[in-house]
Amino acid sequence: MSTNPAPSPEAETLKLERFLPYRLNVVGFFASRALGRIYGEHFGIGIPEWRVVAQLGEFGKLTSRDIGELAQMHKTKVSRAVAELQKRGLVSRAENREDRRESFVALTPAGQRIYAHIVPLALAFEARWIEGIAPDELKVFERVLSTLTDRGRLLAGGYRDVET
Amino acid sequence: MSTNPAPSPEAETLKLERFLPYRLNVVGFFASRALGRIYGEHFGIGIPEWRVVAQLGEFGKLTSRDIGELAQMHKTKVSRAVAELQKRGLVSRAENREDRRESFVALTPAGQRIYAHIVPLALAFEARWIEGIAPDELKVFERVLSTLTDRGRLLAGGYRDVET
DNA sequence: TGACATTAGTTTCATTTGCAACTAATTTTA
DNA sequence: TAAAATTAGTTGCAAATGAAACTAATGTCA
């Protein structure tokens, strides 16, 4: 009854803590968790709602479809996030009279105020997170991250609506 | 009715697609999604189950608590994953006679066979993912990733049981 | 034009998830 | 040693999630 002799002698071994998909998932989870805390505490909204607000703050008015594409959110998630934000008076909807299936979503003045409050918090959070990392290393990191993201999108296979 | 003039003139703007927490979350999601597909198709198990198997394959026998700590999983997730794996005959449990609150979980022979099959698939997947990235850039990437992960763990705040 | 296919968005349903409360065992402390 | 606190692990419950089905509108093609 001794402890922990690796049990699969013939199998190639794998150290989970060095396994890239695992690591990316963990760091991504921490990111969501930390930001979600900020959004939740300060504004009572969650990550999906924040993503919608962020896109609207950046682009003005968008259809739900656009939001989903830009923010990598499943359409049902967008639908529910928009509905919630509308219920809180943070976004408005205006039917597109040229295609009545869709409608344009935009921040209300209240929504814009929230956006204006969140953005500095989010940026400060990001700054604190990357503080002290050498700028050139960060550059490399971001470039590789882009490559991995693009390739991940393909490897994740379901090219189409991917929800995050 | 022109389109998309940025609506918050005074607010600092933020581009979500360049926002690091967002990007990390997206790439992490792709990683999970892609791997989950592999595990699901080939072995009918999910990510949590895979993580348990991976740790047991690496370390031999572990308590659920250890698994949670090593694999960054909430204890309820571990509990359910272990229960599921046990139901499928892939892991066994043995009570620790020196502390009867906990028990040691270990792969059964069937579990070891699955592990031996999954590991090469997982490693091949990882290899395909990072293919073509310059080794020195990958080194930098992994180092920064470690820093971000450690700091993210703190920023995520809930130091204690973090579930992923 | 009219049938068929596609698209935007919502809703239903089953699954997954995490929190909180719980049980049972062990450790601490007074 | 007895009460209080802590710990391992499970379960109840409510919220979040995604797949699939659905509605309504538009596009395609004969």
Q: Measured on Cα atoms, how large is the radius of gyration of chain A?
A: 20 Å
The helix-and-strand class of chain A reads mainly alpha
Largest interface: A-B, 80 and 79 residues
CATH class of the domain at 20-128 in chain A: Mainly Alpha
What is the average of the pLDDT values of chain A?
A: 89
Unreliable stretches covering 5 or more consecutive residues of chain A: 1-10, 159-164
Please trace the helix and strand order of chain A, writing H or E for each element: HHEHHEEHH
Count the helices of chain A. How many?
A: 6
* Distance N to C terminus of chain A: 44 Å
Estimate the strand proportion of chain A: 5-15%
**CATH level-four homologous superfamily name of the domain at 20-128 in chain A:** Winged helix-like DNA-binding domain superfamily/Winged helix DNA-binding domain
CATH topology of the domain at 20-128 in chain A: Arc Repressor Mutant, subunit A
Q: Regarding quaternary structure, how should these chains be classified?
A: homodimer
Write the CATH architecture name of the domain at 20-128 in chain A. Orthogonal Bundle
Task: Tell me the strand order in the biggest sheet of chain A.
Answer: 1-3-2
Which overall shape of chain A is indicated by the principal axes computed on the Cα atoms? globular
Specify the biggest β-sheet of chain A. 3 strands, antiparallel
Share of residues in helices of chain A: 55-70%
Number of strands of chain A: 3
GO molecular function, one term (chains A, B): DNA-binding transcription factor activity
Keywords (chains A, B): DNA-binding, Transcription, Transcription regulation
Pfam family, one (chains A, B): MarR_2
Domain HTH marR-type (chains A, B): 10-150
